[in-house]
Amino acid sequence: MFTGIVQATCEVVAINKKDGLNTLEIAMKSDLREGLITGASVANNGVCLTVTRIADDRVFFDVMEETLSVTNLSNLQLGSKVNIERSLTFGSEIGGHILSGHIHTQARVLEVSHTEAHFDIKLEVDPKWMNYILYKGFVGVNGCSLTVGEVTETSFMLHLIPETLKLTNLDIIKAGETLNIEIDSQTQAIVDTVERVLAKRANI
Fold first, then answer.
1. What is the distance between the alpha carbons of residues 50 and 32, in angstroms, rounded to a whole number?
2. Please, is 33 exposed, middle or buried when counting C-beta atoms within 10 Å of its C-beta (0-12, 13-18, 19+)?
3. Which of 12, 45, 73, 192 could form a disulfide with 80 if both were Cys (CB 3.0 to 4.6 A apart)?
4. Beta-carbon neighbour count of residue 135 at 10 Å?
5. SS3 of 61, please?
6. Pairing of strands 8-18, 81-86
7. Tell me: domain 8-86, CATH 3.30.230.10, correct?
């Protein structure tokens, strides 16, 4: 489990492509590697991946073909920056909201508006997912726990603060790129439950 509070952006230093999977080598500073062991879970752009090896300042992750097909990890190149969050430990402060590291869909960046006064991103997703993306609700974007701004039938806005931009890779995204989206599980459960109840009542 994760909180959506990104701890660092780390560089992809190698990608070893094999049949059915890619092995990512991510450069991590010593403080982020402290206590990290093989088999541990780490969120990369919001995707829960298992540590397969640790060597010097590099941490290795295997990414299966299915994961590559549904996330933006397939778009990574040498030098790409990924948002990193270690898994939640008992007693840790939860500053964001609970995330599983399982991506529901990808959003396409429609527009980035960056001025001295604001940094806004407009994202487009398949309309079926907009049932769970509510104004002032939570959504996981590239592993970041963020509050939703204005919504339409197919899009939503994000209004990012300087601290978020400093700690994540959202400051370098451009229109046309895709971002990993994880829907808030509690919101999804409530919406699905209400829809089932209303559907039953309509059939009575």
1. 15
2. middle
3. 12
4. 11
5. strand
6. antiparallel
7. no
Distance, CA of 60 to CA of 63 (rounded, Å): 10
Secondary structure letter of residue 87 according to DSSP: P
Return per-residue pLDDT of the chain as tens, 204 residues: 899 999 999 999 999 998 889 999 999 999 999 999 999 999 999 999 999 999 989 999 999 999 999 999 999 999 999 999 999 876 566 667 789 999 999 999 999 999 888 999 999 999 999 999 999 999 999 999 999 999 999 999 999 999 999 999 999 999 999 999 999 988 888 888 988 888 888 877
Ramachandran quadrant class, 77 (left: phi over 0; alpha: psi -120 to 50; beta: rest): beta
Query: How far is the C-alpha of 19 from the C-alpha of 201, rounded, in Å?
Result: 50
Fold assignment, 105-193:
Elongation Factor Tu (Ef-tu); domain 3 (2.40.30)
DSSP 3-state of 127: helix
CA–CA distance, 189 with 187 (Å, rounded to integer): 5
